Amino acid sequence: MSESHPPQLIDLLIVRGTLITVDPERRVIEDGAIAVDGERILAIGSTAELQQRYTARKTIDAHRKAVLPGLIDSHAHAGHGLLKSLGGGDSEAWMEACRVVYTTGSDEEFWYAEAKLAALERLKFGTTTGVCLFGGGDSIMRVDDPKYAARHSAAIAETGTRSMLAVGPSRPPGPRLYADWQGSERIDKMVSFEQMYETCEDIVRHQHGQAQGRVNICITLPVFQPEHDADHVQYTQVFKDQAAQYSELAHRHKLAFTQDGHRAGTLKRAHEQLGLLAENAFMSHSIDLTAEDIAACVATGTKIIHNPSAIMSIRGRCPVPELIDAGVTVALGSDGTAPDRSYDMFRHMFQCMHYHRRHFRDAGVLPHGKVLEMVTIDAARALGMAHEIGSLEVGKKADIILVDLFKPHLMPLNMPVYRITSFASGADVCTTIVNGKVLMEDGRVNTVDELEVMELAQVATDRMLDRAGLRHLLASPPNLWRVSHY
């Protein structure tokens, strides 16, 4: 007779859920359970089986809830969270606001408050891992001093989510004007590309792998597109020098590489002239790609990040089905929360499906399971993290979310993959777990005070608007009502 063993004591047991694992078999397990010990998933199976094998310090009942890997937002921008809607539909005014704020209108507390607000929004929407370029607009990065990125990273660490912060130089020409603030005193300074590199190297040395590996750094560069701006032609050598310098930095520290804003021909150029396409590279937007662009991605293993809700997806189309058919890994990004988006990856999944179905006049384009892969396992591959996150598998990090299915808009209780991708929103996420730690349970955030975070964000925004002289961008434009165009 075999001996019976007492149940093993573990940290967390999730029971009675509908598990959408996104594992290699793409199993959907009804009345499923997950055992978590420490930071990792210990076992996955039926509730009956795991309750027999384990007893837990904490048990979460997931009855009538979907249990998924934490969602991944593969492209966004730090800073955007406090610039929502500025300019009221005038994209040029908003881009100029980004330039002003990210160079001369923001202090350390702006970057701390914005990061905390962004992390809170992602946490509540079930996004456990997010990429943030440290700036935005036309490649304007806050890399004049490492203190700003340090405050961003501190906010992420306190909230408990996972983040990949992308740092690199601002777009030429340079040197570029930046400003620090001491109280109400503005202190201007001209920052060279050499100083930007030193800042980025300092950020890599001191922040990569912090917060138990939840805060990581990757490298970014402006997209080389001289034909789009005649002034940039003279800076061709600057781009080539930066490509070599920052590629070496990424290689030396084994960092991922990303760029923001690729379009027709720029991927081919980045590959042939700058040597930037590689297995560790994920490139964002990538609209109106040529056959040569796609071939370069296939040849190098470069991944593509599609931002279906972004302005660039209005100006052109990322050929997502064509890329997938060619064998390229494609993930989804929010592109940040400004000027007019959110961190709700459910919203972006839905937008992605209908965007490309409308283009092809074909409702069969992009199956629901595929778009779910694009915010889970495919996104993890794009970030070089598929061995740790992106699916519910034994041995992986316990990044897990629960979605409440027992709601009118998600009924009836069947076809859970379709419920998640077509009908759910970020507001349906009730529990978020990162690294085995329950950050939110039944809608209540455990790591930060939500009201305090929002008050902090409001104070930082008001201070920024006054310092940058941008309050006029809060006014409603004259063509807000009764007409078809701004």
Share of β-strand residues? 15-25%
- Would you identify the CATH H-level superfamily of the largest domain? Metal-dependent hydrolases
Task: Characterize the main sheet.
Answer: 9 strands, mixed
Level-2 CATH architecture of the largest domain: Alpha-Beta Barrel
Count of DSSP H/I helices: 16
What is the typical, i.e. mean, pLDDT?
A: 96
Q: What count of structural domains?
A: 2
The name of the CATH topology of the largest domain is: TIM Barrel
Estimate the helix proportion, in percent.
25-40%
Q: Extract low-pLDDT stretches.
A: none
The radius of gyration is: 23 Å
> What is the rounded distance between the termini?
79 Å
Structural class: alpha/beta
Overall 3D shape = globular
How many strands in all? 21
CATH class category of the largest domain:
Alpha Beta
